[in-house]
Amino acid sequence: MNYHAAKAFILDKLDRELSDQLTYHGVHHTLDVLYTTEDLCYLEKIKPYDAMLLKTAALFHDSGFTIDNKDHEALGCGIARMYLPQYGYSTNEIDRICGMIMATKIPQTPKNELEMIICDADLDYLGREDFYDIGDTLFEELRAYRVLQTQQAWNRLQVKFLEHHNFFTPTNRRRRTPKKQAYLLELKQLVASYDETA
Question: How many domains does the chain fold into?
Answer without folding.
Answer: 1
